[in-house]
Amino acid sequence: MARRGLLWCVVVLVAACAGPTGPVFGDWYGYQTGAADGYDRAVSLVLDGAPSARSGAFHYRAVRRMTGIGWAANVSSDTERWDGRWQARGVQVAGQTVTRIDLIGLPPDERGAYFLTDQRVLVPVAVGGGGPDLSVPGLRSRLVPRPATAYGYGRV
Questions:
Q1: One digit per residue, pLDDT tens: the chain, 156 residues?
Q2: How far is residue 93's CA from residue 119's CA, in Å, rounded to a whole number?
Q3: What are the residues whose beta carbons fall under 8 Å from the beta carbon of 59, sequence distance 6 or more?
Q4: How far apart (Å, rounded) are the C-alpha atoms in residues 142 and 138?
Q5: pTM of the predicted structure, to 2 decimals
Q6: How many other CB atoms are there within 10 angstroms of residue 151's CB atom?
């Protein structure tokens, strides 16, 4: 019985360390401030699909870190995960066609729409949806691409 448990653990570890099971359009990460709940969070986002895909499945993870003050000081974290569909479309912004990526299936208080830059950085859509949020908080909330050679690429 103990051997079976050990074998199962090895299989799970190997599967967790293996690469993605399908094509990955992109893998991004960043640190977003000013979430609706008032806490900052580390965000990871994977978009499944071939490099030329215009839609597919997404996997989103937000890790929120909370701390207390004074005698109640403690550090804890809370991880939230969502899966859904993503869709890319060309939109006109200031006379140029840019790619907007919408994440369908995220709660309304999460950043669910981004513009994809030429450097493959995801910049949140500004309030009102007219273009990228180029304010200081918006740029701090951008997601940068994870290198395809990074450990865990394509996994959230």
A1: 555 544 444 433 434 444 556 789 999 999 987 555 566 789 999 999 999 999 999 999 999 766 555 555 555 667 889 999 999 999 998 889 999 999 999 987 788 899 999 999 999 999 887 889 988 888 888 999 999 999 989 998
A2: 17
A3: 45, 46, 48, 81, 82, 83, 156
A4: 7
A5: 0.78
A6: 9
**CA–CA dist 123, 139 (Å, integer):** 7
- The pairing of strands 75-93 and 41-48 is unpaired
CATH of domain 22-145: 2.40.128
Q: Could you identify the residue written with the tokens 């996997």?
A: 59
Nearest to 58 by CA among 101, 15, 12, 100: 101
Q: 23 and 148 in contact (C-beta within 8 Å)?
A: no
**Given the DSSP bridges, would you call strands 41-48 and 122-124 parallel, antiparallel or unpaired?**
unpaired
Query: The dihedral of CA 105, 108, 110, 113: what is its sign?
Result: positive
